[in-house]
Automatic annotation (TrEMBL):
This is ABC transporter domain-containing protein. Pfam families: ABC2_membrane, ABC2_membrane_7, ABC_tran. One of its GO terms (cellular component) is apical plasma membrane. Residues 18-268 form the ABC transporter domain. The chain crosses the membrane at residues 369-389, 401-423, 480-501, 513-532, 595-613. It is a multi-pass membrane protein. The gene is LOC108923763. One of its GO terms (molecular function) is ABC-type transporter activity. Keywords: ATP-binding, Membrane, Nucleotide-binding, Transmembrane, Transmembrane helix, Transport. It comes from Scleropages formosus (Asian bonytongue). Gene3D superfamilies: P-loop containing nucleotide triphosphate hydrolases.
């Protein structure tokens, strides 16, 4: 039978020890769209363990709860689902400081595709090490060190790659993802299925790398799916899970012996990892017969394995160790969830994140080019249709108002592309924000500034210049500047609304539906398609939220004031026309429209920021 002393090769290494006791985690599965209550599903059932410095693997069939266990102990899973149990690191309740000194490598590599491997690593090191303690040289040294350690020198200056741009290979991506976390030298590293989707050799080299790191005193905890033997033999500690319960937790090299003592025979050439799964799935019959099982159907085997593990000396010893450790817990430390703190100050983060966003736009300039070209084509088109509008009635009025309506439609609908802003990089933002790279406000400001200047303000100004002079509107510079300002504010308010939608949903389809609806309503209540005074009173309030109405009124006042239009018999001043339309053409009458547009933009931006803060970061 197995030895009584649970000596693991990593016992004498110095590094953090993670313990978890009686973890029960359940999720509520909602049934149907309107159903508020759903049935509860136990994902983890009374799970306890100790993870020491070294290689700690969590294995089990799919759906057994490996990732859930990893997420709960790494503090990534929604704490609302935690029914009982606690996680301690070195007998202390996990706080934000501990969270900063640990790192989590997610399963699907989340990296900025337009940046090179080196730039991605530099981004991580710049944001996650305090600038007052680490000089630029230190950071460059760390990046080079990680590149060397992960054998990434050959592709260090190659871009990661996007769906349109072929970049580095899958194995290199995975190593880069690990490098993003290793760069801060965390003593506690969590990895979710680090070998999934990789070829055998790459998988082997990644596990060998992790093992090398673990020998330097790091506690490496990872979930893994059926590793081959050369990988399995590098594990120090193994946790085998099935249906949310532990069926073995102990030294990896004693696991085969444990199951053989229960009567299961592992063939000479069989891979232990395959053997465990066969045992769990009830595909191997026990040679001796299970001590307390009446048959070997999968359910009976599962129940028996759980019970047998609970009765084993591994479990008893674990309970004993946990009891001793619990007595050492500092009584003053209470389990409060702290706000995550950041390694770098706000302005420093803003500089680094803005730098990356600008680099990303410069390397992926299609959207900016398309926006600019679209605006130029549209300006020339409007200019040709309404070329040099005369001052004779009735064309003078009809063409001017028609042109303004056309321009404002273009300003509003031409900015639909802004809905992609927060949807595109949602996964990247969630990962980086919850890993403590930067504050939500920093990300929001960097995205907004980097989008507004090249994609909105510059194209609108070019658009206004071309259209204004081709249409032959008022010739003085002040009128042109006020026209350009109004166009920019109309555009920015529409962009604000698009940002709000973008921050609120995670799919383009949903965003398109949500953005089209208010735009169409605003157009109807713009004052051009329907006389607002004749509208049903209970609907008329909508005109106060119409970007079209404010924009249309502002450009009309700006153009009509001081103009004289004539036909053979009549003379009509711009002011008379404005009065007939019920438009207040005083100075305040003009500026109140600009202020309203500014207000719509600010409120939408603020709500977009609040929506970003509300995004669920839990797994
Ligand atoms: N947030 C959640 N919402 C719904 N179900 C969940 C959630 N988290 C976990 N589960 C359920 O808990 C069970 C365990 O999931 P988990 O992802 O931990 O399994 P796993 O062992 O990692 O599986 P795999 O190897 O396939 O990734 C699954 O049945 C899963 O559907």
């Amino acid at each position: 039978s197995y030895p009584l002393v649970m000596e693991e090769c990593s016992m004498d290494l110095y590094g953090p020890t993670l313990t978890f006791q009686n973890l029960c985690y359940c999720i509520t599965e909602k049934q149907g769209f309107f159903c508020r209550k759903g049935h509860k599903k136990d994902v983890l059932k009374d799970v306890s363990g100790i993870m020491k410095p070294g290689m700690n693997a969590i294995m089990g069939p799919t759906g057994s709860g490996k990732t859930s266990l990893l997420d709960v102990i790494a503090g990534r899973k929604d704490p609302q689902g935690l029914c009982s149990g606690e996680v301690l690191v070195d007998s202390k309740v996990v706080t934000s400081d501990l969270r900063l000194s640990s790192a989590y490598v997610v399963q699907d590599d989340i990296l900025m595709g337009t940046l090179t491997v080196r730039e991605n690593l530099a981004f991580s090191v710049n944001l996650r090490l305090p600038p007052d303690q680490f000089s630029s040289q230190d950071k460059v040294f760390r990046v080079n060190n990680v590149l060397e350690e992960l054998c990434l020198q050959d592709c260090a200056d190659t871009k990661i790659g996007t769906e349109f741009l072929r970049g580095i290979s899958g194995g290199e991506r995975k190593r880069c993802s690990i490098g993003m976390e290793l760069i801060t030298s965390p003593s506690l590293l969590f990895l979710d299925e680090p070998t999934t989707g990789l070829d055998a050799n790459t998988a082997n080299s990644i596990i060998a790398l992790l093992q090398r790191l673990s020998r330097n005193g790091k506690t490496i905890i990872f979930s893994i799916h059926q590793p081959r033997f050369s990988i399995f033999r590098q594990f120090d500690h193994l946790t085998l899970m099935n249906k949310g319960e532990i069926i073995y937790a102990g030294p990896a090299n004693q696991a085969v012996g444990y199951f053989e003592d229960l009567g299961y025979k592992c063939e000479v050439f069989n891979n232990p990892a395959d053997f465990f799964l066969d045992v769990i799935n009830g595909e191997i019959d026990p040679v001796l017969g299970l001590p307390d099982a009446g048959g070997n159907s999968a359910h009976v085997v599962f129940q028996s394995s759980v019970n047998l593990y609970r009765q084993s000396h591994f479990c008893r010893q674990l309970t004993e160790q946990l009891k001793q450790m619990k007595q050492a817990v500092e009584p003053s430390v209470t389990a409060v969830r702290e706000q995550s703190s950041y390694a770098t100050p706000f302005l420093y983060q803003l500089r680094v994140v803005c730098g990356r966003t600008v680099k990303n736009i410069l390397r992926n300039p299609q959207t900016s080019y398309a926006q600019l070209i679209l605006n130029i084509i549209f300006a020339v088109l409007v200019g040709l249709i309404y070329f040099q509008i005369p001052h004779t009635l009735p064309e003078a009025l009809q063409n001017r108002i028609g042109a303004f309506f056309f321009l404002i439609i273009n300003m509003v609908f031409g900015n639909l592309s802004a809905v992609e802003l927060f949807i595109n990089e949602r996964a990247l933002f969630i990962h980086e924000n919850s890993s403590g790279y930067y504050r939500t406000s920093v990300y929001f400001l960097s995205k907004v500034f980097a989008d507004l200047v090249p994609n909105r303000i510059v194209p609108v100004f070019i658009f206004s210049s071309i259209a204004y002079y081709m249409m032959g509107l008022k010739t003085d510079v002040e009128a042109f500047l006020l026209f350009a300002l109004t166009m920019s504010l109309v555009s920015l308010s529409a962009v604000g609304l698009a940002f709000l939608v973008s921050a609120s949903v995670s799919s383009f389809a949903m965003a398109n539906i949500l953005i089209a609806l208010p735009f169409v309503f605003m157009m109807v209540f713009g004052g051009f398609l329907v006389n607002l005074n004749s509208m049903l009173s209970w609907m008329s309030w909508m005109k106060w939220a119409s970007i079209f109405r404010y924009g249309l009124e502002a450009v009309t006042i700006n153009e009509m004031r001081g103009q004289v239009f004539t036909d053979n018999y009549t003379v009509l001043t711009g002011e008379m026309y404005l009065k007939m339309q019920g438009i207040d053409y005083s100075l305040w009458g003009f500026w109140q429209n600009e202020i309203a547009l500014l207000g719509i933009m600010s409120v939408c931006m603020l709500l977009a920021y609040i929506q970003l803060l509300r995004i669920n970061r839990w797994k």
